[in-house]
Amino acid sequence: MDWQLIGLSFITVFLSELGDKSQLAAIALSGSSKSPWTVFWGSVAALLLASFLGVIVGEGAAQLLPARLVKTVAAVGFALMALRLLWPKEDSPENLEEGVGD
Predict the structure, then answer these.
(1) SS3 string of 23-83?
(2) Cα(first)–Cα(last) distance of the chain, in Å?
(3) What is the mean pLDDT of residues 21-41?
(4) pLDDT digit string, tens, across residues 83-99
(5) What pTM does this model have?
């Protein structure tokens, strides 16, 4: 068992899930429900299934495609998401609010 990889996976997924939409959904569901433990177990099952599917897809992609190509596609994908966050659409609510006072 590779404990270092387990720890790295746990920390990476845990930190990426903090403040994520899935956590906000769990907060909203548990706040409006009288059974927070049911929401907890449903959330745990959903995150386990999503992680399982991610691992299966990642393992399949690693077997079919060269590692360098997978890393390049992932890097380009993250770069595109970063650029998209830096340049919002012209009709986004933030831009419309700025134009109101002009």
Answers:
(1) HHHHHHHHHHCCCHHHHHHHHHHHHHHHHHHHHHHHHHHHHHCCHHHHHHHHHHHHHHHHH
(2) 61
(3) 90
(4) 988 887 776 666 666 55
(5) 0.60
Q: Which residues contact 17 (CB under 8 A, 6 or more apart)?
A: 23, 47
Of 83, 81, 59, the closest CA to residue 70 belongs to 59
Tracing tokens 């700025």 back to the chain, one arrives at 98
Token pair listed for 35: 């059974």
Distance of CA 44 to the CA centre of its chain: 15
Residue 39 near residue 29 (C-beta atoms within 8 A): yes
Separation between Cα atoms, residue 55 and residue 9, nearest integer Å: 11
DSSP three-state, residue 91: coil
Tokens representing residue 77 in the block:
């994908």
CA distance 41 to 33: 13
